[in-house]
């Protein structure tokens, strides 16, 4: 869960998010190296008078042509690797269908018979003490931890987006189309997200709450929901 003074990402709770944070740090180090080199060259040009040999040097032209290409390769290769990892969906242990509406989510556990519910944000006046305002819902998504989860995302009216930052997932919900994503939670916990596509007046009032639990607790919850 993010706090008010936080400057970085939330703690990663899935392998994909760990990779995204590592790539973010890698890209920042490349940007830092570029900025440092440019500032050094600017300071050098201001401090020293450049000779005609320096200005016309073919070696310099060769360097500033090849160096950017190398930098792009250093950024492109890990980026493509993560994109393929995010698109890869191996045999899931559980499939969840998320349907966006104005302004709530409907969830269907397709591996179970008649296990579905609507998830609305809890109004501030009804919020229990200690819960997060504008983020808590009346029905959380409960999933087993350390299990591959596939999420099929669509919408029933306008464009929405199902996003949970700590899990590294963000998938557009488009009416008449099924998009899918997957994730694995590496630890138990409660992870918060929100609709990330402007979908109307109450766009900021349709949060997402994912609760990852051990398998035996998930089985007890599903049995209770089906009874």
From TrEMBL:
The lineage of its organism: Eukaryota, Metazoa, Chordata, Craniata, Vertebrata. One of its GO terms (biological process) is ATP synthesis coupled electron transport. This is Cytochrome c oxidase subunit 2. It is a multi-pass membrane protein. It catalyses: 4 Fe(II)-[cytochrome c] + O2 + 8 H(+)(in) = 4 Fe(III)-[cytochrome c] + 2 H2O + 4 H(+)(out). Component of the cytochrome c oxidase, the last enzyme in the mitochondrial electron transport chain which drives oxidative phosphorylation. The respiratory chain contains 3 multisubunit complexes succinate dehydrogenase (complex II, CII), ubiquinol-cytochrome c oxidoreductase (cytochrome b-c1 complex, complex III, CIII) and cytochrome c oxidase (complex IV, CIV), that cooperate to transfer electrons derived from NADH and succinate to molecular oxygen, creating an electrochemical gradient over the inner membrane that drives transmembrane transport and the ATP synthase. InterPro entries: CcO_II, CcO_II-like_C, CcO_II_C, Copper_CuA, Cupredoxin, Cyt_c_oxidase_su2, Cyt_c_oxidase_su2_TM_dom, Cyt_c_oxidase_su2_TM_sf. Belongs to the cytochrome c oxidase subunit 2 family. The chain crosses the membrane at residues 27-47, 62-84. Residues 91-224 form the Cytochrome oxidase subunit II copper A binding domain. Pfam families: COX2, COX2_TM. Binds a copper A center. It is found in: Mitochondrion inner membrane. Keywords: Copper, Electron transport, Magnesium, Membrane, Metal-binding, Mitochondrion, Mitochondrion inner membrane, Respiratory chain, Translocase, Transmembrane, Transmembrane helix, Transport. GO terms for molecular function: copper ion binding; cytochrome-c oxidase activity; oxidoreductase activity. The keyword Cytoplasm does not apply. Its cofactor is Cu cation. Residues 1-90 form the Cytochrome oxidase subunit II transmembrane region profile domain. The keyword Metal-binding applies. Its main location: mitochondrion. GO terms for cellular component: mitochondrial inner membrane.
